[in-house]
Records
---
Amino acid sequence: MDLNELTQTSGEWLRGLGPEADIVISSRIRLARNLADFPFISRATPQDRLQIERSLRDAILAANSSGDLLYVAVDELEGVDRQFLVERHLISREHAESQGRRAVAIDRTERFSLMINEEDHLRIQVLQSGFNLDSVWEQINNIDDGIEERVTYAFHERLGYLTACPTNVGTGMRVSVMLHLPALVITRQIEKVFRSLQKISLAVRGLYGEGSQATGDFYQISNQITLGRSEQELVQQVRDIVPVIIDYERQARQFLIKESHENLHDRVSRAYGILRTAQTISSEETMHLLSSVRMGVNLGLIQDLRIADINDLFIRTQPAHLQKLTGNELASTDRNIERARYLRHHLNREDGGHGAEKN
Amino acid sequence: MKCQQCDRPATFHITELTGGKPQELHLCEDHARQYLTSSSGEPPGPGGVAAALAQQVQQMAIGQTAEELARLDQQACPVCGITFYEFRSQGRLGCPHDYVAFQAQLDPLLLNVHGESEHTGKRPRRAPAASERRTQLIRLRREMKEAIENEKYERASELRDEIRRTESE
């Protein structure tokens, strides 16, 4: 079990490639599945959890012919390592913080992960950079088929896949697209967009999903309903609405460029300046400033940075990543100093971030 | 966790999504009902299972007495043993069979949350009948564990054989 391997690389979904990658960070689908012959997690004994873990581990490893999976017993990890996996979007906060036997199988390129004994016995997720839902659905459907050949899922003739929470029953599917919407935030239109999304039963969440605040102007748009519509229809609902939001964001950016070019350029340049010179900086301030810089790069106001590198900085400046990087547990004051050092180092390089150096 | 409005335990955990930023509310049954009645001018919206449950209690309360509600709450799933009250307070079901055992209570809830009551998507290639039969393993294992705890070894060994038979089907 070697998580340190992951600290050397970045997830595929951070590459900043794929359709509409200036605004769409990633496309993600997750499926919730349960084994028919065990209680749901809230009623499972330690013995049940162990057996669930064993049968799913065997099925997952047998179904994955490439053999390129990192299998991690989450309950045996240190807190900082669990947090590290949350920051990378490979496990959920609930999975990190719960108790008892649980595990995750991670694709080494971080295109997918499978959580065992989360809220449901199995949570499969596939993640890709850019706006790419069809390809994500195709992949997750294949992974699901491969596992289903080897275990019996809890399934009801009328209600579909049975889940621990009735809000997931049916398809067990959550389709979500993560968007970077700084201009809609600056022009104060974001709430209006949210209200209209809620009317068509789509949910809006922050960077780390359920209950998380929208830091760095990142928002996840996802389906709320899981029953009574096919997987394709659920994908389509999100796929249809995202271009509309992208369009709003682009209009808001154009408006800012036209109507307050100096203010916008000033905001972006100051953000870049602080990130390159600060001696101590909190995670929140970093996210906030990186968001402006990211938009600045997309609008051509900053020329010497790549989107992939900024995407990376959003993740690598978070607490657990910094601690993995330095190899020590750090108190928050020390983390803020370390974060500032890391940012200075990465934003002041001679080659302006185009080099192969990643750490 | 205590109700935010009084000292009773909070059994309803509502995430309010209609005000821009999500807001979490933890309320007892009475205050949840009150809260939902006061904001009843708005459409239900995707408030999750807790909000839908609270709304359902509110609807049930109109035609039913407290005793009837209490009786529904005490109903237990024969497979995993969870009561409807336990589900209501945790928001999580105990086993796949709960969808059958609590069908009368869950169907309106599902309709409330999803606006639909029938799955139209993907199906596993294995027959659902096999899935329902395997669900019985949950009950058999539980009964075997209880038999052993009560030193009823003969019964435990019968159950063990039945478990093996079902597992190999």
---
Amino acid sequence: MARALPRPSVSGLILLLVVVAIFPYLYTWPFFSAFLNPFRTFQATRFGLWLIILLGLNLLTGYSGQISLGHAALVAVGAYVAAVLMNQGFLGQDVPVWAAVLAAGLFTGALGFLLGAPALRLSGPYLAIATLAMVIALPQVLKLDSVSLGGHEIHVHMARWTGGVQGLLLDRPKAPESLKDLVNERQWLYYEVMVPAVIMTAMAWNLTRSRIGRAFIALRDTEVAAEHMGVNLALYKMTAFALSGLFAGVGGGLFAYNEAFISPDSFETIKSITMVVAVVLGGLASITGTVFGALFMAFQNEIVDSLSGLIRHIPSLSALQGYIPTTQSDFEKLRGAFYSIPLMLFIIFAPGGVAGLIRRVGYSAPTWWQGWRSRVAGWASAVKPARQRAEPDADAGVEGRQDPEEKTQD
Amino acid sequence: MPPRFRRGLLLAAILVGGLLLLSCGGGEKEAGETPGATKPAAEQTSTPPDTTGVSATEVKWGTHFPLSQNPASAYAPIAYGMKAFFDYISAQGGVYGRKLTLIIGDDHYNPADTVEVVRRLVEQDKVFGILGGLGESPHLAVYKYLQDQSIPDMYVTTGLLQWVEPVAKNRFGGNPDYVTEGKFLAEYIVKNFSGKKVGLLLQNDQLGVDGERGLKEGLAGSDVQIVATETYESVNSDTSAQTQRLKNAGVEVLVAFAMPLQGASMVRTARETLDWDVPIVATGILCTDLFIALAGPQNAEGIISYTFGVQAYATDDPAIQKYEKIWAKYGTGGELSNFELYGMFVAELTVYNMEVTGPDLSRQSFLDAAEHTCKFDCTTCFRGGPVMTSPTDHRIAKNLVYNKVVNGKWQQISDMVSFEPTQECTPPKLPADFDKQPKVGHDAEFVDVP
């Protein structure tokens, strides 16, 4: 049963927010210029996008226990809605970015709510199959031009809206005129993404500690008991899907705005499965875990590259050439293995994800420290002169004390 | 006030305060922004030469390929072929003393990842240009970015017409575009299958769309008509249902714009399951030994396709022998296939253009040289069909030859058909040390560097 992480102090939170707020300008300061540059701002923006998307997935899969392998389909829907609105406007009017993204979020949320209905009867692997079907079918729907039914051609013209197989190209995002001197394009994009990301993280955090959040956790842990406690299962299951749709829609809309391009292949099956992997890696049912999951999604390529680079630099390895990969091309050919094997090992040894690891260290560290203290005190008493040992009262507390470390074995 | 509202207010106050603080601090323009990021392309000529990625000892190139997580990673050997050729040239001392490096970025054939990979190559690794990026949707996600920054986008490894029409200074097409392919195949059909009914098997993406368009244009006004069209998604490898439907529609000639797996499935279904000996015309993608092996040599007998250069199976051709030696020494092992051959083809062209540019290598001067390639006789080019480009024509593969499967192998069955718009060009003024650079082209011998 997941306990809440120890609440970070308010000052820590403030520091974090300040760093997030000034991050795009940090690299101009002397100390930070060593490892920060405009490309890192781009990566931070991607991280923000993934954070929004994965928050939705964690709400659905982590907190509500409804496994969804089709989250990428909702992201794609959100991206397309926002892209079409930004491209073609609505009823002849130009649609500003914030309106398009909001509309995308609300539309996808509504879609999620409707999709929650079939999910009411399904659970576990069956729900996984149904959601997987969603993400497999969506690319074809997006490319659809006409369908022939019984010999008749029915023109759906979806491709006219979605750009069909080629996808949609949008105008490159630009900062508004009034802020032209303060932010360039990249910094503007960073704020366009980070501000919603922070707001939605706070929203998710609040949600999970509210009545809705408790209902989610209840229906995840035991549906029967939850129903007995008066939780309207149907409503909350559909709400979980709706919320995941809302987050996915906003994330997808911002993605489309950021990259100025969306295609049916951008969010496909493998991405959908990778998202679930990221959420599990970070830690299910944990906001901090989602942050780590988003870091994984944004940096996975770099992690694999550094891993292979690290191994290559072990000096004695060249002796084993021919038995294990040593050259650059060997690593490129075995890239899949370098991606999956560490993943497997990590999940075996840390099934609670990164958040679970933090939890374990966070709780066991103080008790571990206490255990050490008592052990050291025990040694100290063992070397005490004999006359002091004659007085039983003084050491009774030390030797007779149960080792606190043993009480909290996970 | 409940604690959560207090926290929320605190959060909002910090955010607003932070933003106000920033705006009061005054605008510091980023110093490290890549030059010309927001300037329109027309202003580029007035800026100083862009020598990103070029140092006294090295030229860095980058590319994006699917190396994992997607069936399209079967095309990864193209990138290894490029790298092998670059290593071969570097072993001989490089171009004007600069060694050639190729950084291969893995984008999993996913457009969102391609954006990340290409941005990292351009902004972090600071490559000179992108060579042979693969994938229609993946490259669509990044081509605008490369164009806006005037980064060389050389010989894109897909056949979308829009890479070369409209022409962009920084971008060159690699594969012959699918529309031209369609027209080329249509010519053959009109000549040999007059009056027949044609059925199409198309991949449900730009390959299929463009191929169909080219075919229709080529068949316009003839007595050949398209009576049935079937599509499949690139993630599916079984096209037996589509083949059955095509047979039911009374098709007399089958045309396929498909990938090897799906094309082979179609051939097997037609020949074995349906006992249907319909003539099959296939896209050049299928003109490989791999396709014959997948479809079965008996079944593939008589299939028509085309190529745009000498193929890897022509092992008695000295050109192929040279490339086999290069691959054996600098490659990743295994037999030379058409994929690696194609990689070496574009790499050789790039090296030639760098040699013509001369020691003062910059992005602009390189692109100038690349769009004035005059009759370069590349190693895998047909005799009489050298590579030619011009400022209005950024295609490199315009000389096509019909091929047919005879006795389980592809064989040339026609003379070269040239789609070259003009045979005139002015030979470039070669720099002083051009002759001292590693030789490339059809007449260059293999140089064995110990």
